[in-house]
Amino acid sequence: MDNIILICAAGMSTSMLVKRMEAVAKEHNKDVKITAFPQHELTNYVGDIDCILLGPQIGYLEEEVKREYEPKGIPVEVINSSDYGMLDGKKVLKRALKMIKESKES
Amino acid sequence: MAGNSSNFNTNLQKYVAKFTSLKGVIALKDGIVYTMPVSLIGSIFLMIRFMPFTGYDEFMAGIFGPNWAEPLNQVTGATFDILALVSVMAIAYVYAKASKAEPLSCAFLALVNFIILIPAYINDAAGTAVGGVIPKAWAGGQGMIAAIIVALVTAEIYCFCNRKGLRIKMPDGVPEGVINAFSALIPALFTMTLSFIIYIIVKAITQVTLIEWIYQVLQVPLQGLSDSFIGCILMAFLISFFWWFGIHGANLVGGIIGSITLANSLANQAVIDAGETLVAGQNALIVTDQIRNNFIAMTGSGISIGIVVGAILFAKSKQYKELGRLSLVPGLFNINEPIVFGMPIVMNTRMFWPFTLVPVMCAAISYIATAVGFMPAFGAAAVPWTTPPIISGFLLGGWRAALVQIIILALACVIYLPFFKQMDAEAFAREAAAVDEDDDDDF
User: Does B322 contact A91 at a Cβ distance shorter than 8 Å?
Assistant: First the structure.
């Protein structure tokens, strides 16, 4: 199962996106676990992460998060802002699965 | 223009990234978060204690006896009155953790240093000093800024010792808990000695403790600045300004100024606790945490409900019809990322002015309504920032505060409408040709 983490300032708006991504995942029988939480709780997270997506409003943290997680082989990316704004679960999930696939291949 | 502003955006993002990755800023922002459960639950008890109805005290006393409020005071006294203690520990904790040092020892150490630096007695009614106490005046609102300083300095010394390997070495096989306890010995020696010396020097020069001195020379002026009309408007403007660049403005601005607006709320509460009535211009501060959380950022920063209402009632384009539908419910709970990124507001020159000026107008109206005495100034009782507007106003300040919110929301709808209609017309025209290439079901 792929574990996708979404991060934003308070974990509120990303959690709305998670709901939609989960619905899409279920519809397409994708075995994924998607979780949203606030940025300051990321360091507390224990467990395997396959992909980290940042809400665009905290895009300025991208470098910092990348520095921490990319050496561990975890892909990190800022969510496309219009997909984020329209809560487009399908596009964001697709992107996440693609990131995971690419990082596993390399 | 577009090239310039996107350059500026990249630079701004870079500066914000640099600023927010400073350990002190992380510690301050994330440390204050730990005070939230304490103050929000404390608020419930505080609201029960001070219901804004005439005859409420007598009514409660009639049911529960003359001492009905005393147990409630126990709870509020253990929450708002020790927020500086909670903050000093939380900030030091986050700082140590961000430095990958053992955080709990650091938190306790910061607490110890803070207590060394506050008065160890209070004066009773006759002016006699009574010992054996931790004065709640300094453990709460008046100690907030000092708590931040003590926490940061202690934590930096602690982490410095850790980096330099200044710790008592333990043989292999000693449990980690024991190692951690010992690792704090040397920083404890350094910081407590430092506090001891500072206590002596500051007392000799100023006749008060460091925390009282910081309150006088730093916190009071900062509170004064934040509490001005200009300060209130600037805060509202900056939150939207950063959001317009796609940066979480409420988080950024709140992280810096939150401790001061919180201190303003606590200062008002101290007046209420003393049995006096808050009067703006005399003993009340206007720009409180509640103004920042429950007025300026109603329905999300920018008071973007104006756009949502426009979209629901008038949208012709598919994009904005959909956007209106999906942003209504989150908007009611003051979450508006769908609007900010979906409309988008970010880097959208047409939306810059309404998005910044509506909250500025809100700040001005809220400020004036309080200053002229129409809306009550707020004490410590707070509601979560996700509480829907009008309800939040009613809970905080009765029907008058709710009415102020209604007026602001209505104005927001009116101001945003022409801007929204322009955006919508363009989107409608664009949609005729739009093909979404990535909307297939092919995974």
Answer: no
In a domain, B184, yes or no: yes
> Tokens representing B43?
């608020």
- Give dist(CA B327, CA B339) in Å, integer: 7
Element (H, E) at B420: helix B391-431
How many residues are listed for chain A in this entry?
Answer: 106
pLDDT tens string A53-88: 999 888 888 888 999 899 999 999 999 988 998 899
| Interface contact A101, partner B, CB < 8 A | no
- Ranges of H-type helices in B117-166: 136-139, 144-163
Is residue B203 located within the same domain as residue B258? no
Shortest distance, CA A32 to any CA of chain B (angstroms): 14
Closest CA in chain A for residue B12: A60
Residue B248 has its nearest CB partner, among A9, A30, A85, at A9
Give the tens place of pLDDT for each residue, B413-428: 999 999 999 999 999 9
Say whether residue A28 is in contact with chain B using an 8 A CB cutoff. Answer: yes
Question: For B53-103, what is each residue's pLDDT tens digit?
Answer: 778 888 998 999 889 989 999 998 999 999 999 999 999 999 999 888 889
Question: For chain A, what is the domain count?
Answer: 1
CATH number at residue A21: 3.40.50.2300
The answer to whether residue B216 is domain-embedded is yes
ipTM above 0.85, yes or no: no
Report the phi/psi class of residue B326: left, alpha or beta, with left for phi > 0 and alpha for psi in -120 to 50.
alpha
| Confidence band, pLDDT 50/70/90 cuts, at residue B439 | low
Chain CA centroid to CA A38, Å: 12
How many Cβ contacts (< 8 angstroms) between chains A and B? 92
Distance from CA of B302 to the nearest CA of A (A): 14
Q: What percent of chain B has pLDDT over 90?
A: 60
Structural domain boundaries enclosing B151:
25-226
